Amino acid sequence: NLIVGDEYNYQRKIREMIMAVKLDKMKILSKDEILALYLNYIYLGRSSWGVDMAAKTYFGRSAKDLTLAQGAYIAGLTHKPNK
């Protein structure tokens, strides 16, 4: 968050995309590593930061043990996690 900021708006998302492209092009991180970082730090509601914490909060299980429907539910939280 120090690099792209803490505010929640479109400008931050654009900065995140630019940073991801730069990290990939400079071979600092692979696309898989960038995605893993994002999925581990995204806010998904109910004080859950990251997909695995959200899986435990919403379904009482690890992300790797979710059903397809449960995974889709968590993926849908990325848009508006507090709704």
Mean pLDDT: 84
- Total count of strands: 0
| Distance, first to last CA | 23 Å
Report low-confidence residues grouped into runs of 5 or more.
none
Broad structural category: mainly alpha
Query: Strand share of the residues?
Result: under 5%
Helix content: 40-55%
Which of globular, elongated, flat, extended, rod-shaped describes the shape? Answer: globular
SS element count, helices: 4
Overall radius of gyration: 14 Å
Task: Name the helix and strand elements from N-terminus to C-terminus, one letter apiece.
Answer: HHHH
Largest sheet: none
Task: Give an overview of the whole structure.
The protein contains four helices and no strands. It is an all-alpha fold and 83 residues long. Helix 3 (51-59) crosses helix 4. The protein is globular. The model has no long low-confidence stretch (mean pLDDT 84).
